[in-house]
């Protein structure tokens, strides 16, 4: 709703859904759909969790009919989850205590941690998996998605999510003494009220106090602001808010006699003109996560290409941010653990061409699938091909109907690891670790990144002129 009628196509989100075929099963779904629409309209909290579950609805024009399609897809999804008894998609009933045995050698952590770089995992209320000690020890930071502002006070939407968050916290504390635990505030669909919350001193004080109380109450290490699309008129207010939050965190730190600073991170989009006074922000912020996925439903092509395709590849975007600030150590790239596919398109990737996106005027919905779900949906991982120019992985099925699926796999992730190391970037964030398979195949690759190359913290590895 709010996001759907925004002005930038980058606001559009991607839907995580099991199948396209539910689109054709209209009749069975008319009733649940109607109910869900009613829920979306009348009940903000439910709408919040639904929309975050959907994540990123990719569609060309933000019309109501698109919204309906997305709602159907997600209703089908939740029902599937409840019905399925398989270990990968069981209904969430509370995180179990950590089952794997404690390690005798204390403080296992990713190699990147040795030089202060970051391996960050998102853990989401809308996913359905537990956590293992091994997973937690492969991270430097874990960020729970989401808390949302309600009447200026940040809240976790419901009891179930709050329980999941608290269990994540206690599991994380048990697994590692160095792992930073954070909460993300906002999200794709929940950022609308931020503008008002940072608008004047009074509202900012309420908002800052609520964040500080939350952090103190739940004894966590910091927060992330997931406000991806602040408007031009918000820029000074947002900055003042962050500065006031930093000040309040310092006071809390003194009050608690805490050694380490509280962490503040911000998410920024790959749309380059939306964050204005970046350098001033960086004085109060520990790091920025740059959200890099391709968000254009009607542009069929690779997700997060390192190179190629003009100015929207990872290399160009990171170069922009790092040249503008001179502080590579303060950036993380955000990568996705879900694949995206389109049906009935041409193959967008040709080895000899820089033209890596195909515009499809028919505006067909892209469909997103968790990495862990791919085999259940008959995607054979042995068919994954690698595209050398963009350094991305994909599956192409000549059909009919033709299908193009873009994804991160071990090979493309290794390329991203190398890119981050070579460009002295501060770290990698994964959206989300619970979309990985039970062997943590993708997390293992990211976590093993050798990011400590001996460079000074802020040596710039781009030619900025
Ligand atoms: C501050 O902003 C809030 C809403 O953002 C508004 O309700 C309130 O009247 C404003 N206060 C002042 C003093 O402008
Ligand atoms: C868009 O997709 C349709 C099939 O859905 C296909 O017939 C058409 O050629 C595609 N258009 C472009 C420009 O690729
Ligand atoms: C892949 O791309 C690199 C440049 O990024 C080039 O040096 C190499 O020859 C290419 N390999 C193939 C097999 O095309």
TrEMBL record:
Q: Out of the domains of life, which is the source?
A: Eukaryota
For this UniProt record, give its keywords in alphabetical order, as a comma-separated list.
Answer: Membrane, Transmembrane, Transmembrane helix
Start and end of every GH18 domain? Answer: 117-453
GO MF terms held by the record:
chitin binding
Q: Name one Pfam family in it.
A: Glyco_hydro_18
**One GO term of the biological process aspect:** carbohydrate metabolic process
Q: Which residues cross the membrane?
A: 29-50
Among InterPro entries, the record links this protein to:
Chitinase_II/V-like_cat (IPR011583), Chitinase_insertion_sf (IPR029070), GH (IPR017853), Glyco_hydro18_cat (IPR001223)
* PANTHER family reported for this sequence: CHITINASE, GH18 DOMAIN-CONTAINING PROTEIN
Q: What is this protein called?
A: GH18 domain-containing protein
Organism of origin is Caenorhabditis elegans
What gene is this protein translated from? chil-1
């Amino acid at each position: 709703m709010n996001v759907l009628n925004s002005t930038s196509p980058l606001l559009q989100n991607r839907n995580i859904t099991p199948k396209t075929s539910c689109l054709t099963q209209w009749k069975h779904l008319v009733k649940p759909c109607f109910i869900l629409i009613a829920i979306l309209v009348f009940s903000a909290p439910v709408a919040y969790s639904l929309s975050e579950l959907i994540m990123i609805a990719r569609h060309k024009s933000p019309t109501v009919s698109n919204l309906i399609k997305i709602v159907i897809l997600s209703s089908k999804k939740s029902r599937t989850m409840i019905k399925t008894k398989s270990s990968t998609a069981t209904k969430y009933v509370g995180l179990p205590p950590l089952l794997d045995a404690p390690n005798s050698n204390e403080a296992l952590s990713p190699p990147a941690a040795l030089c202060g770089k970051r391996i960050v995992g998102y853990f989401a209320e809308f996913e359905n998996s537990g956590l293992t000690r091994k997973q937690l020890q492969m991270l430097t930071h874990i960020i729970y998605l989401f808390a949302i502002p309600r009447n200026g006070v940040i809240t976790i939407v419901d009891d179930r999510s709050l329980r999941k968050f608290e269990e994540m916290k206690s599991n994380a504390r048990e697994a590692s003494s160095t792992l930073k635990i954070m909460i993300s505030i906002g999200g794709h669909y929940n950022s609308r009220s931020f503008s008002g919350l940072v608008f004047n001193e009074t509202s900012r004080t309420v908002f800052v106090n609520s964040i500080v109380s939350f952090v103190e109450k739940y004894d966590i290490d910091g927060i992330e602001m997931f406000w991806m699309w602040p408007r031009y008129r918000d820029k000074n207010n947002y900055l003042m808010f962050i500065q006031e939050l930093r000040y309040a965190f310092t006071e809390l730190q003194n009050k608690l006699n805490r050694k380490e600073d509280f962490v503040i991170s911000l998410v920024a989009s790959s749309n380059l003109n939306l964050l204005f006074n970046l350098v001033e922000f960086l004085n109060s912020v520990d790091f920025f996560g740059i959200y890099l996925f391709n968000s254009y439903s009607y542009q069929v092509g690779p997700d997060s290409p390192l190179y190629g395709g003009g100015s929207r590849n990872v290399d160009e975007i990171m170069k922009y941010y790092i040249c503008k600030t001179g502080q590579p150590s303060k950036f993380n790239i955000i990568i996705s653990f879900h694949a995206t596919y389109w049906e009935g398109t041409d193959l967008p990737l040709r080895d000899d061409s820089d033209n890596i996106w195909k515009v499809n005027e028919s505006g067909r919905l892209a469909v997103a699938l968790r990495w862990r779900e791919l085999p259940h949906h008959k995607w054979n991982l042995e068919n994954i091909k690698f595209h050398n120019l963009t350094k991305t992985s994909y599956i192409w099925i000549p059909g009919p109907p033709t299908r193009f699926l873009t994804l991160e796999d071990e090979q493309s992730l290794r390329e991203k690891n190398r890119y981050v190391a070579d460009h002295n970037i501060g770290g990698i964030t994964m959206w989300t670790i619970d979309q990985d398979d039970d062997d943590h195949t993708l997390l293992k690759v990211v976590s093993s990144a050798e990011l400590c190359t001996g460079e000074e913290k802020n040596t710039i590895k781009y030619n900025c002129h």
